[in-house]
Automatic annotation (TrEMBL):
One Pfam family cited in the UniProt record for this chain: ABC2_membrane_2
Secretion signal, residue range per the UniProt entry: none
Organism per entry: Streptomyces sodiiphilus
UniProt keyword annotation of Methyltransferase present: no
PANTHER family membership: INTEGRAL MEMBRANE PROTEIN-RELATED (PTHR37305), MEMBRANE PROTEIN (PTHR37305:SF1)
Positions of transmembrane segments: 55-75, 96-122, 128-151, 158-177, 207-227
Protein name, per record: ABC transporter permease
Keywords from the named record: Membrane, Transmembrane, Transmembrane helix
Domain of life: Bacteria
Length: 240
């Protein structure tokens, strides 16, 4: 279920100098925006909801998920080095799960910590808004990591497709088109965050909590299972 060597190599790939700088850009930008808004408006619950929901959860979290999820395995498949990993006496589900744990861990660190800090800066966690969005970011990070890890196993253009999903579907359609929200990880995560926030805080989802939980579990488990099947098919293709 977990292999230390695979985890170490994946961490090294994800946290190399260039990729780590990319991962830091959005969290730093979020904190700068929070600091500027707080200095101009003071503690403001509405501003906190707009920034944490409109920027952090709608754009920052999925984009970091794209970088961590696809980066956990996509480059190895693209350059062919995955062959060396598959040649080891490791079960394919162990490889996928290990990489998924690493992707989730990296995504969680680069999303939940800045979201919580930004929320505290913006309104000091008034009405549990900072905590609600932190929980939502954590839930979304798990699902995004699994979905984008799967994408890394099925396409050489995983980053491009991931960015299209994150920027167009989640940030645009998921926020503006009512029907699309049901199939939005952002809305599923918001349903969990809504339960944490105080009533009337402005943290709200268009998806009911039971439905959101079922869809989150299904997306995460389904993506992990199918990614394992894809990895097995690569092994079979190499043996043929």
């Amino acid at each position: 279920m977990y292999n230390h060597t695979v985890a170490r190599l994946t961490f090294r790939a994800l946290l190399g100098r260039r990729r780590a700088l990319i991962l830091l850009v959005l969290p730093v930008l979020l904190l700068l925006i929070a600091a500027v808004v707080r200095s101009q408006t003071g503690a403001d619950d509405r501003a906190a909801v707009e920034i944490l929901g409109g920027f952090a959860l709608a754009a920052m979290v999925p984009l970091i998920g794209v970088i961590a999820g696809t980066g956990a395995i996509g480059p190895e498949i693209d350059d062919g080095s995955v062959v060396y990993l598959l040649a080891k006496p490791l079960k394919r589900h162990t490889i996928i799960l290990t990489k998924l744990w690493v992707a989730i861990g990296v995504t969680l660190v680069f999303t939940t910590v800045p979201v919580l800090l930004a929320g505290l800066i913006l309104n000091g966690n008034s009405q549990q808004i900072a905590l609600a969005y932190t929980v939502a970011a954590a839930v979304a990070s798990v699902a995004y990591s699994a979905v984008f890890l799967l994408l890394g196993t099925v396409s050489r253009n995983a980053v491009v497709f991931g960015l299209i999903y994150a920027l167009i579907w989640e940030a645009l359609f998921g926020s503006l088109v009512p029907g699309a929200r049901t199939l939005s990880v952002q809305q599923w995560a918001l349903a969990v965050g809504e339960r944490v926030a105080a009533a009337g805080s402005g943290v709200a989802s268009d998806v009911a909590l039971p439905t959101a939980i079922v869809l989150l579990v299904a997306a995460t488990a389904g993506a992990g299972w199918y990614a394992t099947q894809r990895l097995r098919s690569l092994t079979l293709a190499g043996e043929e």
